[in-house]
Amino acid sequence: MFWVHNKNYSKKSYHTLILNKKTMAKQTKINIEDIRGIAKIITDATINVTDLVEEVHIQVIHPPLLKSTPVQRLITDVSGFVYDLVRFCTKLIGGGLEKSLGTLNPKLNIGISMGEKETVLAILNGVVGDYLQENKNPLAISMALRQDGEAIDFDKNKIAESDKKVSGKILLMIHGLCMNDIQWTWKGHNHGEILAKSYGFTPVYLHYNTGLHISENGQKMNLILEELIENWSVPVEEIVILGHSMGGLLTRSAFYYGEQNKQTWMKYLTKIIFLGTPHHGSPLERIGNYVDRLLTALPYAKPFARLGKMRSSGVTDLRFGSLVDEDWQGRERFEKQTDERKVLPLPKNVDCYTIAATIGKLGDNLKERTVGDGLVQLKGALGKHDDKTKDLGFKAENSMVLYKANHMDLLSDKRVLEQVEKWILSSTNRVGF
Questions:
Q1: CA 144 to chain CA centroid, nearest Å
Q2: pLDDT (tens digit, 9 = 90+) per residue, 321-334?
């Protein structure tokens, strides 16, 4: 999910974790479009905070179940005028700033170093990515297939002329919530780069807005992979997908939509390897939903429930692991819900593997059941469920438990690499489409 949850990294190692050498050499700066996006967020945030303060004010002045006096109503009317004035001025200033910035060159750099810009954008999109897209904010991430932090140009000649050797064997790497493709390099280690050198793959990284519904990203991924197949500079022989956390859920969603549309890329998919994927959702999101409902039920705390409801569609999809549109369309995503999602089985004709982590040691059943890797429960990452209709049924030989490891260790632990290498080398028994 995302790196700040782990406290064991020094400031020096931080830069190694976030940016590889080539990306660091291409450090970006804040440009006018970035400033416009930030200004819009600040404007909207100021208005939302004003709404929140006014709502609290009303709750205090007009206690629930008690009749309001004329004086109380007068106070509310006067304060309401003030709040309206604040909102009006904020919109006026924000609109003026937007127009002023719009007259400048959108690519004009202002000279502020932003080596960590990609990381900040990934976190922002994970938390409020749906809001950014809905409001056409320039900070919203658009899905792209990338290498070295840059989008791949689908022109066949440009792919062929790149400094990387292009293979017909593609290793697709898909990151998790609030992360980006560059962060596959973790503690100076990158599973994809090592597998590429050892087994002749070309690593390709999917970069996407993790704040959108998983099903929305799944449909986009389905289309972008079809484009990749059509434009790859050499005949595609095989696709292997390595998905971390939410990236595994996105893969299952994309496969579903690819199957619905009988897409070509699925014919080349031989293996999917899941790393710490919350197949049945995350307990943290379920707790968050409970807190929302608790705050809403308390009269004076009710306004603050709005703060919790700022979290993105991508985050709320993790309550149960929703993968298709039907799981969320026509439903209020912050209301109490039971697990009524459409359960997608593991893809047929594709070898599926999963690695789950737990911070406990072998035999520490309490940590396995409750804590897991710190973000994802062990049982869920293994695809297991008490309801047999929801159990994904991973084969025992296709599953691994990584002990004394947290969610982010899955990106750098050598035990993970060793197991993935064994699976990569294993024979593939597939039935043609």
A1: 14
A2: 999 999 999 988 88
Domain boundaries, the chain: 12-26+135-281+342-425, 28-113
Strand partners, 146: 151, 205
Instruction: Check if the beta carbon of residue 357 is closer than 8 Å to that of residue 410.
Output: yes
The answer to whether 358 and 378 are in contact (CB under 8 A) is yes
Domain 12-26+135-281+342-425 adopts which CATH fold?
A: Rossmann fold (3.40.50)
273-292 pLDDT tens trace: 999 999 999 888 887 776 66
Q: Identify the residue whose tokens are 């919203």.
A: 140
Longest dimension (CA), the chain: 80
The pLDDT of residue 302 is: 60
Residue 248 in contact with residue 275, Cβ under 8 Å? Answer: yes
Query: pLDDT digit string (tens) for 112-167?
Result: 434 367 887 888 888 888 988 998 888 899 999 999 888 998 876 666 666 567 89
Low-confidence ranges of the chain (pLDDT < 50): 1-25, 101, 111-115, 429-433
In a 13 Å sphere around the CA of 196, the CA atoms on its Cβ side amount to 20
Q: Tell me what pLDDT residue 119 has.
A: 80
pTM here is 0.77
Q: What is the DSSP string of 264-288?
A: GGGGGEEEEEEES--TT--HHHHHH
Is residue 382 exposed (0-12), middle (13-18) or buried (19+ Cβ within 10 Å)? Answer: buried
CA distances (Å), 279 to each of 118, 204, 249, 343, 394, in order?
Answer: 27, 23, 7, 10, 12
For residues 225 and 261, what is the distance between their CA atoms, to the nearest angstrom? 13
Report the alpha-carbon distance of residue 64 to residue 61 in Å, rounded: 10
Alpha-carbon distance 174 to 158, whole Å? 23
- H-state helical runs in 232-269: 246-260
Spatial distance between the Cα atoms of 382 and 392, rounded to a whole number of angstroms = 8
* β 150-151/144-147 pair status: antiparallel
